[in-house]
Amino acid sequence: MAIDAAIGLLTTAAVVAPLSVAAPADAAAAWRSAASPGGRTVYVTNSANVGGAANVTRFSIGGTGALTPVDAVALGDRGGARSMVFTPDLRFAYLANTLVNRVVRFRIGPGGALERLGEVETPGPFAMAIAPDGKTIYVSNSGTRMVSPFTVGAGGELDPLRPVDTGAEAAKGVAVTPDGRFVYVSHGSPSDTTPTVMTGFALRSDGSVGREVARKEIGISGAETVITPDGRFVYVVNQGSNDVHGFRIGSGGTLTRVPRSPVDGGDFPEGAAISPDGRGLYVAAVGVESNDPDARAGQVLGFTIGDDGRLTETPRRVTMASPIGVGFSVDGRHLYVSDYTESIVNAFAVAPDGTLDLIQTAASNGPRPAFHSVNVLPSRRTAPAQ
């Protein structure tokens, strides 16, 4: 999370609960026949940033939307597990760990079981995004001005492409447009006192980062950055200025501020998620005061997204101790929000008017789920034709 934005660590460790399925020995087509169809699995990354053992815990989603813990992959006694991304065919998953400068690779098995494959080095990985065709991932390098792209090999291996200077200090949130043409990067640190920028870049056919196409001022300490499923709008939450900025994405990747932007984002907003139908934005405001996440209660805010991209807050905020990771079920009927200080995950039913009704509070099965700690395995899809 923001107060530990420079903290994150992974050490090599064993699986807490043994995985029941080994990787098949034959070709990818045979493997995919046994792989998870997706849509019914949530992974919670427990950072252990203030002690304990970090892990990735797998939960299954029941018919009512409630979560059931299945197993966990141990990540060592030094914390830092954060963002995860998945290839569209659901064969591989990747996890960012900051202070040990590693991205961890996993094979996804039946039911979403994770088999650890290895690691690659990159400085301070924080947030990640994956291209829609699944061939490239983009990793923000916290504490630097860089985003590092990697190509995804047939066996899930990652090969580095040339890192790019994002044009501002402290690269943070990363998001790729659904058509795979542009990547946007937010910037900033919680200690900042002045606004920063979001920059956008064109993506080349090989996945490498090309020319800058956009540079817009945002708030203080930009965090999670999200794009609507139709690719029309991008939003960024800003921790230091307590607001949400929204922009329309032009045909050439340019950014134009949406009406009424920015809007109030609660106290220290850090996490964000857009509903699968593109009509709602939900923000997790941690509730930090004087760098202390226990100082005041946080909030989960909901917004409707207008046709012109403007945000209108739904009538009721939900109070949690320190909400941070946010993720939607594939059908959009349920929202899952992790809590950093309580080490829990709340499951909410999403009403037609966008309000949230709590249906379950579950232990996260590890200490301190942090930034981007709720990761819903999507439904399997094929890569778009090239």
Describe the model.
The chain is 2% helix and 48% strand. The chain contains 1 helix and 31 strands. It has one helix at residues 28-34, and strands at residues 41-46, 55-61, 67-74, 81-86, 92-97, 102-108, 114-121, 125-130, 136-141, 146-152, 158-160, 164-165, 171-176, 182-187, 197-203, 209-217, 222-227, 233-238, 243-249, 255-257, 263-264, 269-274, 280-285, 298-305, 311-313, 318-320, 323-328, 334-339, 344-350, 356-363, 369-376. Strands 8, 9, 10, 11 and 12 form a 5-stranded antiparallel sheet that branches. Strands 17, 18, 19, 20 and 21 form a 5-stranded antiparallel sheet that branches. Strands 22, 23, 24, 25 and 26 form a 5-stranded antiparallel sheet that branches. Strand 27 (323-328) and strand 28 (334-339) form a beta hairpin. The longest helix is centred in the N-terminal third of the chain and has 7 residues, at 28-34.
Mean pLDDT: 89
Given as residue ranges, the uncertain stretches (5+ residues, pLDDT < 50) are 1-34, 382-386
How many distinct helices?
1
Shape: globular
C-alpha end-to-end distance: 37 Å
Radius of gyration: 19 Å
Largest sheet: 5 strands, antiparallel
Secondary structure category: mainly beta
What fraction of residues sit in β-strands?
over 45%
Helix content bin: under 10%
| Quantity of strands, as a count | 31
